Protein: cysteine desulfurase
Organism: Amphibalanus amphitrite
Amino acid sequence: MALLIGHVRRLLLNQATRKSLGEAKSRAICISAFSPAKSAAAKKPDELELRPLYLDAQSTTPMDPRVMDAMLPYLTGCYGNPHSRTHAYGWESEAAVEQARAMVADLVGADPKEIIFTSGATESNNIAVKGVAKFYRSKKNHVITTQTEHKCVLDSCRHLEMEGFRVTYLPVQSNGLVELSQLERAITPQTVLCSVMTVNNEIGVRQPVEDIGRICREHKVFFHTDAAQAVGKIAVDVNDMNIDLMSISGHKIYGPKGVGALYVRRRPRVRLEAIQSGGGQERGMRSGTVPTPLVVGLGAACELAKQEME
């Protein structure tokens, strides 16, 4: 991986390559579903238009057409509020939401009641880190994370520091992995939460989540992992990995943008303080009307990921 990244960087620094990319970009087109492109077979060789090669799948993925097909009915005819339980439109949407919840749970080995729908992994991380810390603040006030976490986790920890919490930011080794003995030494009787991502979004390193979860379980510390880059790409089982909270993103697994999920363990129970006020949806952890089309898309993406995972 490092060799590939280095090779790509050298290519991009090459002046001739930059010029070629610039020319390709100027010729690139965005094919619109509303403006069918001229058939390539009908064009002369010098008329063929080029598109850039997409190499940014760790940032976002294109939506799978099958996911769009699953979502479409809930963007048109099935538009009921899933929280309206007095009429058929609401029942229809609620059934679709619960089916999607079961699909997400099935991918990660969870119970459907342990899946909370959110707007994405950033919100899931905020709810997990801030919510757990604030709920247990009268008993414990120490959080452990690593220096290479996603910015939303690091900023959530800094927010907690401003409220009087103590946060330990563990360094990683030269290979990007956290040193387990150092993590265990950092745990104190005041430690309430440890947050370490499963797969890093920039360097791709996979942390020993199973071992981290075991250490946290032995010390009665809740373990949260940002699994946005892992779910749907590698096998993830929240029970085998001793995970108490896990963040999931829809658009990382060929699903829609604007939707994600947070796994919250029920046994032993993990308690959260809600960080958003409102109607008390999602077991009171995330108020706001659940967007039926988006969660249906997330569920479909999770189902496809499980079926097609290598």
User: Anything to note?
Assistant: Residues 15-38 have pLDDT under 50 and may be disordered.
